[in-house]
Amino acid sequence: MSPVRESISKGTVTPVRDVPSSIPRPEYVGKTRAALWTGGDVHSPETIERIRVSARIAAQALAEVGRHVVPGVTTDELDRIGHEFVLDHGAYPSTLGYPGAAGRPAFPKALCTSVNEVICHGIPDSTVIEEGDIVKVDITAFTGGVHGDNCGSFIAGEGTPEAQELVQVTYDAMMRGIKAAQPGREVNIIGRVIEKYASRFGFESVRSYTGHGVGPAFHTGLVIPHYDAAPHHADVIEPGMVFTVEPMLCMGSEENHEWDDGWTVVTDDHSWVAQFEHTIVITETGPEILTLP
Ligand code: MF3
Ligand code: CO
Ligand code: CO
Question: Which residues are registered as beta bridge partners of 281?
């Protein structure tokens, strides 16, 4: 096994890729901020069916991009693949043109590629993936007026046993968090379960980025913590709710900062990170994953 790379740095971002005018855009594209969502997080069966369609496209796109995570590919090429896949399925890639924080640029690409110590929101660019890298791909599809959001971690080549363990534990943590999302409980149970499981392996769960309500809005305002936030985030889980569970686990400290690009979030100690994300709907009998291919 060749040694893993030292650290990630900014590459060159290609021009914004086109979207045919026939594909409907989310309301925020071209604006400086997304509209405030006031419609709540419990949706009608008809809305949930539409979210199911977007979620499936997002899941298929994630699988397609994931197949291309190999040493030598650029993160820009991964974006091209995801961008074209989503358009080919008649959907809009929700991150493209998503407004940034005040005075910051909109996100310029169809997906996020977050490599190694990048926690999330990495911008696809000329960065070349190397053997052993952990590449988090986060892709969201918008069609029928609703979004479906998901993320996976892919190791380029084999990866170290440590990287493999981090990825597996993060996936298992997400699934445990999802299973805990039972009607009648508070959403903070999800974070409690995730953080507790991560800590068994010595991993820290990121606090500053969370899961969220999703559907007619990309981010509805509902927060799903991935740590024990009680007594905060006490919203009660109800049938018809749709939200994401998307833990980010770190090999070291979860303390983090953002690059001056206004997006890329990295661990302060440069410890490596894995993330998985599903969009789920709560039924009378428990959670159902929507982001399945
Ligand atoms: N898909 C991410 C999430 O899980 C959000 C990315 S927003 C972007 O919430 F602008 F960074 F792309
Ligand atoms: Co996402
Ligand atoms: Co999300």
Answer: 242, 288
List 138's β-bridge partners, or say none. 112, 151
| Residue 140 Cβ contacting ligand 1 at under 6 Å | yes
Residue nearest to atom 11 of ligand 1 (CA): 121
From 62, 218, 275, 280, mutation site for ligand 1 pocket: most ligand atoms within 8 A of C-beta: 218
Provide the angle, in degrees to the nearest 10, between the axes of the packed helices 45-67 and 75-88. 140
Q: Which residues surround ligand 3, an ion (CB under 5 A)?
A: 149, 244
Asked whether the whole model's pTM tops 0.85, one would answer yes
- Regarding beta strands 211-212 and 223-224, do their DSSP bridges make them parallel or antiparallel, or are they unpaired? antiparallel
Distance between CA atoms of residues 269 and 257, nearest Å:
10
Q: pLDDT tens digits, residue range 157-182? A: 999 999 999 999 999 999 999 999 99
CA of 170 to the centre of ligand 2 (A): 15
Residue pLDDT, tens place only, 247-278: 999 999 999 999 999 999 999 999 999 999 99
